[in-house]
Amino acid sequence: MSDQQAVIDFLAAPSTHGGAAVTRVDTHAASVFLAGPHALKIKRAVRFPFLDFTTLEKRKAACEAELAVNRPYAPAIYKRVVAITREADGFLALGGTGKPVEWAVEMARFDENATLDHLARRGAVDAALADKLGRAVAAAHEAAAPAQDFRFADALVDIVTQNDSELRGSPALFSPDAIAALTQKTRTALDRIRPLLKARERDGFVRRCHGDLHLGNIVRIDGAPVLFDAIEFDDRIATADVFYDLAFLLMDLIERDLAPAAAIVLNRYLVARARDDDFDALAALPLFLSVRAAIRAKVTAARAAHAEDRAEAERSARDYFTLARTLIDPPAAQLLAVGGLSGTGKSVLAAALAAHVPPPPGAVVLRSDVIRKQLMGAAETKQLMGAAETERLPPEAYSAEVTARVYAAIAEKARRVLADLATRVARVGARLADASDADAGIARQQEGYDLGHVDWDEIDASGTPADTLARSRAALERV
Could you say which DSSP state residue 145 is in? Predict the structure, then answer.
């Protein structure tokens, strides 16, 4: 780092930025200088098992890779790679004509308090933001390039082996017996789903993804979540099944006790992508979530020795490890059906219940309104934007024949969600923005329906959504 000190002093000086005050933020591999509306990020001259920035050429290449990888996610943030040069007079310059002595990524500065980890601490990751987040990740994965012959299942074996070894490096935090038990369960789960992972790679679901998709690497700009700071230094780390990429975000939400947001993200992601193959991938989600939690446990433990609050960092590492052990051993899946006439709050209740149905991140919600519009083609071109869900369908879309197709599709999707692994592998309030077309007139019409004998538990939905949710959860506890 000493060879970079002159550059650090230069970038930390207000005079370099037209007199603007400078804030410096250091990570394990970079230093970022925030001044006015701009940010400059240099790579630190460090080497870790997973990266090597020890030469100027490698740091330049890493800056160029960071720009190339992140511009598709955040074109408004990532601007260019710029040289810090030594001029003829001996002074340093930003983008000068002299010899480059360092390279930086120039970015537009955003509100550092608007990253989602900060919002989470303030309780500001609400349902609307979680919904947008699910859409954003789905769009990113749709745009990501499929990998060819990557052998993701084998790469995951290596990750599990590394986790075991590195967790054992902190015996004061993690019991060797507990590590051994976690590793054994993880390897058993991986062996069981290996055929599924291979089939998904064959079908194009292993892609060059973000790779580091936690709340600290997502920022809210103009109300929308923007992904940034994707892994640039190693394609092998960032290339994975798209559900493994998604799992990092879901695990982060779960660990922060944001189960409702995690359930919304998952369900919006599934609806936005509209791929029944993703229902099969749910079989891999407990493994993916657990591996991601174990990675956070070992990384947090490694940083604890240098943390300002070591005790808090160690507590966090233990919590991640406990989460990894919990997630690898999920309970059996279950099916819940929510029915009722239009306007009784079925969709609101189902969405609220989802987060309370184990295993994390909660239940998959299958809505007849959404599936009807998917079947009718209303969502073909605007799926990811969500506009198609609010388009009204013509009356013929509600014929008995179409309705039969809708419920057959729901049953098939439910079977895929609930199917055992062998079957999966063998098969390899106000409706201002809602999928339902039911209005007040339809609701009044349904009051005269003869529902016949109903042997479901009936829930009084006359109160608030919170009241209905509480009554529903109480009914579930009696089952």
Answer: P
Sequence-ordered list of residues with C-beta below 8 angstroms from that of 470, at least 6 positions apart, any chain:
none
How far apart are the C-alpha atoms of 418 and 280, rounded to whole Å?
9
Asked whether 125 and 132 are in contact (CB, 8 A), the reply is no
Same domain, 400 and 424: yes
The neighbouring-strand residues paired with 146 are 207
**Number of independent structural domains in the chain:** 3
- The tens digit of pLDDT for each residue in 2-60 reads 579 999 999 999 999 999 999 999 988 899 999 999 999 999 999 887 889 999 999 99
Q: How far is CA 300 from the centre of its chain?
A: 19
Do 171 and 297 lie in a common domain?
A: yes
pLDDT in tens, 103-114: 999 999 999 999
| Cβ-based neighbour number of residue 446 at 10 Å | 15
Give the structural domain span for 263.
116-327
Show which of 42, 77, 109 is a domain's final residue.
Answer: 109
| Per-position b or e across 148-159, b if 16+ CB within 10 A of its CB | eebebbebbbeb
Tell whether 265 is covered by a domain: yes
Quick one: angle between helices 259-273 and 127-143, nearest 10?
40
DSSP 331: P
Structure tokens that stand for 233 in this block:
């230094």
- Is residue 367 located within the same domain as residue 473? yes
Q: What is the DSSP letter of 214?
A: S
**Rounded distance, CA 368 to CA 215, Å?**
32
